[in-house]
Amino acid sequence: MPVGHEHFGKLVRCQNVVHQPAYIQRLARLSGLVEDDLKIRIDQFREVHYFERRKVNDDQKIAPFLISNRAMLEKARAFIAEPYGFLYLWGGPGNAKTDVLIAIVNEINMAAGQVVAIYLKFSKLVEYMREAYIEAERRKSHPDAPATYSGRLEEVKHVRVLAIDEFDFDGEKLRETAFAKEFRFDFLDDRYHLATRGQTATVFASNSPPEHLPEPILDRFQDGRFEIIHNSAPSSRPTMKRQAA
What is the phi/psi pair of residue 230, to 5°? Predict the structure, then answer.
């Protein structure tokens, strides 16, 4: 493209449908998705929305409690149509947050536009950062050494849509180290500034309520332009049945 064009000097997606399967498979490998994952679509999810009477505090008071995934599905569809900012989906385990993230990535990548989406677990992002740091140290004495992880980390940092799963701050999934804390903030801060300029969009899935987020991170998620959505639907795992081969 000519100098000054928005796509000057950038790789753009080929629109020839012949290349679509290979393109989807490459993105699936980057995301660690398998063949069955690529079949997940947002319209496959059944909406759950009802009230259940529960004890709300220590004095045994009973009050209605909303059980619903409606907001999550509505915001996911809106995010697919127009990826923007940060979307933080949180709730108990087993209530399809991961599958919704994968559906968002699939819908975006299988559309005809130029937007690229990648799904990754947060632990994988930390691994990329750690390996990129090791590579950088190695290249100080061996300039010709490969920079595989450094390039991959930059690709992830600047990808148009990124879905980060298991972004948890409670329980055993979180193995906090000083390195992980520093990386988490730096990476998210970079994505935050890119998001405010409309250059990237990030959707998160977590079992942790927003108030459990570290204060500097929570402050960015509470930006009035972004969304924090509670999925209060129960786990679907107890109802699953084994299928015949």
Answer: -95, 125
The tens digit of pLDDT for each residue in 136-180 reads 788 788 888 777 767 788 888 889 999 999 998 765 555 566 767
Instruction: Of 104, 223, 214, 233, give the one whose Cα is nearest residue 164.
Output: 104
User: Distance between CA atoms of 52 and 105, rounded to whole angstroms?
Assistant: 32
Domain regions of the chain by residue span: 17-234
DSSP 96-112: SHHHHHHHHHHHHHTSS
Q: What is the pTM of this model?
A: 0.85
Beta partners for residue 204, in sequence order: 88, 164
Q: Note whether 69 and 96 are within 8 A (CB).
A: yes
Q: Which homologous superfamily is 17-234 in?
A: P-loop containing nucleotide triphosphate hydrolases (3.40.50.300)
Tokens standing for 94? 């087993």
